[in-house]
Design goal:
Elements: H1 2-18, H2 22-49, H3 54-66, H4 70-83, H5 88-100, H6 104-117, H7 119-133, H8 136-139, H9 144-157
Helix pairs in contact: 1-2, 2-3, 3-4, 3-5, 4-5, 5-6, 5-7, 6-7, 7-9
Length: about 160
């Protein structure tokens, strides 16, 4: 199932984080990507079998986002949110996908909606955004205004859980 592949991908990501060498880190990262692609296939099948399976659309978007398919992820999250507009995980993950595309105002909009339904998920987004700001991907974009906003919101809402962006 998609969840088994997602869980395997998470295990590989953890191994990559703790790898002693860059070569090992790359091998584990590639294995995680492979498992996320397998999860995508499984979640696509699940959504074909049940076009109202909101969690399958959310999980599909998650796996797509994790391998950098941000536009595909947005479509999946949009489907999930069309069925359940207050689905906190889909709102949080869609906000993270917007980060990958440099769409900061859209990320802020989803964050504002998230604050209304689930402060813990909102904190998770702020923690992920904070980590994302130090990523090579973020360094290519003009993020200073967004960075100030993240820090201000973290001050208002407090620190969140650890979540890899």
């Amino acid at each position: 199932t998609g969840l088994k592949h997602r869980d395997k991908a998470w295990d590989y990501e953890k191994q990559a984080e703790g790898a002693a060498s860059e070569k090992d880190r790359a091998v584990y990262a590639k294995s995680a990507e492979r498992e996320f692609k397998r999860a995508i296939d499984a979640f696509k099948l699940a959504t074909k079998q049940n076009s109202r399976h909101v969690e399958a659309f959310g999980s599909l978007g998650y796996a797509q986002r994790k391998i950098g398919r941000y536009k595909d992820a947005l479509k999946s999250y949009d489907r999930a949110l069309k069925m359940k507009s207050d689905y906190p995980e889909a709102l949080e993950y869609r906000a993270e996908a917007y980060l990958g595309l440099g769409r900061f105002e859209d990320a802020k909009r989803d964050y504002a909606a998230l604050v209304k339904v689930d402060n813990d998920q909102a904190r998770t987004f702020l923690a992920a955004a904070s980590r994302w700001l130090s990523s090579p991907e973020a360094q290519k974009l003009k993020t200073s205004t967004f960075s100030v906003w993240v820090n201000e919101e973290r001050g208002k809402l407090g620190l969140g859980e650890k979540s890899d962006w």
